[in-house]
Amino acid sequence: MPRGQKMPKEGDFIAIQSYKHDGSLHRIWRDTMVLKNSENSLIGCNNHTLVTEDDGRHWVTREPALVYFHKHYWFNVVAMIRDDGIAYYCNLASPYVLDKEALKYIDYDLDVKVFPDGRRKLLDVDEYLAFSKRWDYGPEIDHILKKNVRMIVDWIDNEKGPFSKDFIAIWYERYLELSRQRK
């Protein structure tokens, strides 16, 4: 964050803005509660959060979801807390930046979905190939993203970071505590 700018702290709400490689706005999540904000990462929670798509459509998230962003990894993780277990949506994306307006990142189309039963699926490969050509991602970004897909799979296999049951339990409980304090 720029010097002199107040960093969001635990319990604050921030917006999240996703962009495409060409700089166009892709999607906005209006209110994400910050659970932890450190030098390298931000953990938050969305719950019935208003989302605005680039075409102006609006929708509201259905369930609580922990979000994990890191300044050194080219992905972010959304852990959706559902009645049948935890489902994950991992966006291949640039490391985030945080300014007074929002947490921002570039979405690179590829996604890894993990179902509550542990099955995984790589999504939007066709979209990635099309946008990669259109906006000339180039071999460097392609290499970085493929390396980060392998890292996500390793994290899933080893229950690392947001893929750990303890991570989910600790941060969801913290979200519930902070929500109760706000009432």
From TrEMBL:
Entry-linked SUPFAM superfamilies: FomD-like
Gene Ontology molecular function: aminoacyl-tRNA ligase activity; hydrolase activity; metal ion binding
Keywords annotated in UniProt: Aminoacyl-tRNA synthetase, Hydrolase, Ligase, Magnesium, Metal-binding
Domain DUF402: 22-160
Domain of life per record: Bacteria
Entry-linked Gene3D superfamilies: FomD-like (2.40.380.10)
Pfam families documented for this protein: DUF402 (PF04167)
Protein name as it appears in the record: Cysteinyl-tRNA synthetase related protein
Organism the protein comes from: Lentilactobacillus farraginis DSM 18382 = JCM 14108
Lineage: Bacteria, Bacillati, Bacillota, Bacilli, Lactobacillales
